[in-house]
Amino acid sequence: MTYFNDLGPGTGLNIELQLNGQPVRAQVSVRQNLGDFLRESQGFKGTHIGCEHGVCGACTVRVDGRAVRSCLSLAVQADAAQVFTIEGLSDDPVVRVLQDSFVRCHAMQCGFCTAGMVLTAAELLQARPEPSRAEVREYLSGNYCRCTGYESIVNAVMDAAQTLRKALSD
Amino acid sequence: MKAAHFKYVLAQSLEHCLELLSEHGDEARLLAGGQSLLPSLALRLSAPALLIDINRVQEISAQPQVTSSVVRLPALTRHADLITSPVVQAYLPLLHRAAPWIAHPGIRNRGTIGGSLALGDPASELPACAVAAGATLILQSKSGGSRRVPARSFYQGMFRNTCGADEMIVAVEFARIDGKQTGFKEVARRRGDYAMVGLAGQARRSGQRLTDVGLSFFAVGDYPVLEAEICQAIEAADTAAQAVTLALDVYEREMQPSADLWCSSQAKKYIGRSVLEDVIHDLFQ
Description:
The complex is a heterodimer. By secondary structure, chain A is α+β, with helices and mostly antiparallel strands. Chain A is 36% helix and 15% strand. A five-stranded mixed beta sheet of chain A has the order 2-1-5-3-4, sandwiched between helices. In chain B, the strands form four sheets. In chain B, strands 4-5-10-6-7 form a five-stranded antiparallel beta sheet. The longest helix of chain B has 20 residues, at 265-284. By secondary structure, chain B is an alpha+beta fold. The interface between A and B is medium-sized, with 36 and 33 residues.
């Protein structure tokens, strides 16, 4: 039987994952959440940690193709997973277009929520290329913007959706 | 905002998991989707000695299985799967309709039906759906083997249920509903927030009338219960309008919602009237 804790040296757990397309091996403490692992151990500081209990959505990353809150997942659970942070997704066609739209529509102020907004919106646009404004608001309802710039953020997602549809039809 | 120390073990199989539970019982918690457990650890509302990670347990992570009469959902069915699964869409319209109301997309991608039913948060959607639909929970333990518990007798109090310390939910079975007689309504300040009042319901149509009506409110009490008297009132009605009159009559007399930090009992009772009315109209459609 193998139990792991982090009460002594060398008692962490070894994990192997694909992080932003690269293989990564690391030893992690079992109570470290995925977000802290990505920032502190791997240096991907594009993942922002806000509330640390699943309310704000700022720490959203992509795990095995799905947008998840990295504060509500343990680093040990990323073993054998495919993890992407915002840094690894600049070549993703949907994320790329969303980033351009966020700039064009002034959809960020302090920028703290932006990576989480973009990753959540990317999941929406992959499933629904033609969302209504109400659907965008609903899908982003779990992501806080404390600058309260929601109107511009919804504008940006609608703008990206239109750009993606145009690219498809060209 | 960091969890207290705990030991962690990755369960390799159902047998392994049940073995761990029989050995550690009360001091262990199962880690399924973690979308309620990990916040409670981060806020130090709970500090179990051992987390048993069940995410790799194959026996509880299959696709929904359909027979001629029931749909069996393995415990690790994610909330997002309830929205995308063609089986759920075709045969469990209540769950398909309720699932988009569970929290937010990032949480639905991880959260599981087994976890939600086991926790039984009074404000959550799936326990109320299971009670309304008369679902059956399949529990398993090393010492007692497998047993079936109706959702309607599973819950016993706030965050209390009949699941033993060495037991776990491995699946939940819902009777197939081939008609569309479902109703679901939730009122919250913001989409995805905890409900102020919610109501799940389903029924079968029999000519003009409805039979097998099941209704369960959530966010109004310690745990979801079948509103049997309201269901009987609806079954006695020939039209939606008559059902609303009869049901509201019972509701006014019997319903006493518990207040929470944000919403008084009176406010919940007021909101619940229109929620009940809307759900009855849905059921008659």
